[in-house]
Amino acid sequence: MKIDILTLFPEMFHGVLGSSILKKAEEKEAVSYEVHNFREFSDSKHGQVDDYPYGGGAGMVLKAQPIFDAVEHLAKNKDKPPRVILMCPQGERYTQKKAEELAEEEHLIFICGHYEGYDERIRQHLVTDEISIGDFVLTGGELGAMVVVDSVVRLLPGVLGNEESPKKDSYSSGLLEHPHYTRPADFRGWKVPDILLSGDHKKIEEWRIKESLRRTWKRRPDLLEVYPLTETEKKYLEEIKKED
Length: 244
Hints:
2 domains, about 35% helix, alpha/beta, 3-stranded mixed β-sheet, about 15% strand, Alpha/beta knot
């Protein structure tokens, strides 16, 4: 996968892309990153990328020209058009399903804006996706882009080492993940559930399914409204409700 990021603050990405799983993914050649200062694509001799909004109002608006020229430069000579992602509080709320969808792409271009907003023609005629990471406003799109990049890259084949890991993450299965424990079995009197020490893999798997259902029912019951429960899961859920 190729990931290009358009921003006025490239230095914000150096630590994130050069650390942990994102760095290892690039070392494994599962992905390559390039961060571009789109001010370099401005047709203004002073590198201006924003201007006052028509009709008046507070703040400055990101101009169309630098963004169009930057994206068109990055997309030229490509057999398949890239997904062009605008980080924006007005966009669709980001989900694990969207991360899985983007992980199937070959080329992603992220646009990280600042100021009051974007020239509407960027939305109408350039981007393929508008994404928001939540119902709040950040200073710019950089932090949101980092979140999306991290969530996508970890899904690429070979990145995590264990191919089963991302499949069992919270939200990937449609439910929240079950609790995890590691050594010691007794820490300050708080003990690991006996079932996990039993060696009975069938019962352990049943426990994990049930605890996943329990956690989802308690913390995100809205997920159960759309999750296709099996007959066994329905039975477990009824038991959980009686127990709690």
